[in-house]
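hey so u asked for the seq, here:
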Amino acid sequence: MAAIIQTVDGVVANKFEIEESELKFGRTADNQIQIDNLEVSNEHAQVIRETNDEGKVVYYLEDLGSTNGSFVNEEKIDKRQLHHKDCIRIGLNVFTFIDEGKVDIEKTSEIKKSWIPGIYYTK
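ran it, C-alpha cells below
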C-alpha cells in the first residue's frame, strides 16, 4: 500500500492512502486532496496506480494541465514515476510519497559498555 503524506514545517499534517487507481489533487471539492489556494488549479494533478509488465504496482504523478505546474523533487513534470520518499509540490503545499512496501524498519541498536569507564558504543 502507498500513501501521500502532507507535511507542514516538517510535521505530518495529513495522510492520504492510495486505495483506488487514482488520487486527485485540486481546488474543488470533488478532488480527494482538496487544496483551497488560488495557485492550485481546479483539477491540478493526480497520482495513478498501474501494474507494469513484470506484474509490479508502480505509481505516477501526472499533471492535469495545471496553470502553475506540478513538481517532483523540485523538478517540473508532466508525468513521472514516483519512488519512496519523493517530494511532491502542488502550489506551495508539500507532500511526500510513501511506498510502504519499500519502508525499511530500522532495528533497535544494542548499546554496549566498553572497558573504558563512561564509554558506550553500538555495533
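The first strand starts at residue 2 and ends at 8. Residues 50 and 58 are 5 Å apart (CA to CA).
lmk if thats what u needed
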